[in-house]
């Protein structure tokens, strides 16, 4: 019995480590696409759109997909260049993982909280609210602690636009930001990133609970479908905050990507969001494969 208990403890201790390794591996593999998506989010479009006629005869303008964009980055900076900004991202992921795990243990989140079918709606939603609020605390903690690394990663990638080399190493970048902008510079765009993270937690938990409670039978397969659907809807609903985070993080920091004429200077993240909304650019980069040119730009391009 003692050996079995020790084995279970070792397995439970290895699980978070394996989860972290899996996250780091996946982020490393997907970084070229994330890099391309970030450049799209900040409005850098070095490749011309192309015309495509639909089956209904309507002509539309499309931009090259993110895979083509990643190939373009490779053609400019080579293989190593596709992984600019990866180091601070991985460090940030580690900080997020450990801070979230420690906070989860501290506030005692029950990840296996089961809702009894005999529970009333009030009891079900009360349990959901408690679980959601605890997850929000963990998410907020991990985002705040990892945000300086997130800023460094984004600014490293943004240098692609102007071929700059201001941000090269992690510690050097943190020192540069602190010297030029103060400690507040390390937490630029923290509010839209928090809104994206916390909004996702709320929407995922509420949608998952609603799907499993009212739409699907509570079987393992349907619960997995509910999880996927809830995550997809939540990420789609909060994606615009990711675009605002990317633009605000590099705005007016001395990089060409965040300065006129590439980007106006914003007073705060709300001004950035209003500007992107007026330009119909709040969802740019949301699609990996099919990237339509917004109507406002499409009309101008047709006149050229």
UniProtKB/TrEMBL annotation:
Q: Among the entry's GO cellular component annotations, what is one?
A: mitochondrial outer membrane
Key words of the record: Membrane, Mitochondrion, Mitochondrion outer membrane, Repeat, Transmembrane, Transmembrane helix, Transport
The record's section on Gene3D superfamilies has: Mitochondrial carrier domain
Signal peptide positions are none
Q: How does it sit in the membrane?
A: Multi-pass membrane protein
Q: Which InterPro entries match?
A: MCP_dom_sf, MCP_transmembrane
Localization, UniProt: Mitochondrion outer membrane
Please give the Pfam families that the UniProt record associates with this protein. Mito_carr
Q: Which domain of life is it from?
A: Eukaryota
Quote the PROSITE patterns the UniProt record gives: SOLCAR (PS50920)
Ranges: Solcar repeats: 126-214
Please give the PANTHER family that the UniProt record associates with this protein: LD43650P, MITOCHONDRIAL CARRIER HOMOLOG
Family to which the UniProt record says this protein belongs: Belongs to the mitochondrial carrier (TC 2.A.29) family.
Q: What is this protein called?
A: Uncharacterized protein
User: Organism, per UniProt?
Assistant: Macrosiphum euphorbiae (potato aphid)
């Amino acid at each position: 019995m003692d050996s079995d208990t020790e084995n279970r403890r070792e397995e439970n201790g290895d699980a978070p480590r394996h989860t972290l390794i899996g996250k780091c591996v996946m982020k490393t593999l997907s970084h070229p696409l994330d890099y391309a998506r970030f450049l799209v989010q900040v409005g850098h479009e070095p490749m011309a759109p192309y015309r495509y006629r639909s089956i209904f005869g309507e002509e539309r303008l499309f931009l090259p997909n993110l895979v083509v964009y990643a190939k373009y980055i490779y053609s400019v900076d080579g293989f190593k260049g596709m992984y600019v900004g990866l180091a601070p991202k991985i460090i940030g992921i580690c900080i997020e993982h450990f801070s979230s795990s420690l906070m989860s243990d501290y506030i005692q989140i029950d990840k296996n909280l089961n809702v009894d079918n005999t529970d009333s709606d009030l009891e079900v939603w009360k349990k959901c609210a408690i679980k959601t609020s605890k997850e929000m605390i963990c998410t907020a903690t991990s985002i705040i602690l990892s945000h300086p690394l997130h800023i460094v990663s984004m600014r490293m990638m943004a240098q692609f636009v102007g071929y700059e080399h201001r941000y090269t190493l992690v510690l050097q970048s943190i020192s540069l930001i602190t010297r030029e902008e103060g400690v507040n510079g390390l937490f630029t765009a923290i509010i839209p990133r928090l809104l994206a993270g916390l909004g996702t937690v709320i929407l995922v938990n509420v949608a998952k609970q609603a799907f499993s409670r009212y739409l699907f039978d509570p079987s393992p397969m349907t619960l997995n479908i509910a999880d996927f659907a809830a995550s997809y809807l939540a990420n789609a609903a909060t994606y615009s905050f990711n675009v605002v985070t990317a633009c605000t993080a590099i705005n007016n920091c001395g990089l060409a990507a965040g300065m006129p004429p590439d980007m106006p200077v914003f007073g705060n993240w709300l001004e950035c969001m209003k500007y992107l909304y007026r330009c119909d650019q709040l969802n740019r980069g949301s699609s990996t494969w099919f990237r339509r040119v917004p109507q406002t730009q499409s009309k101008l391009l047709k006149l050229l």
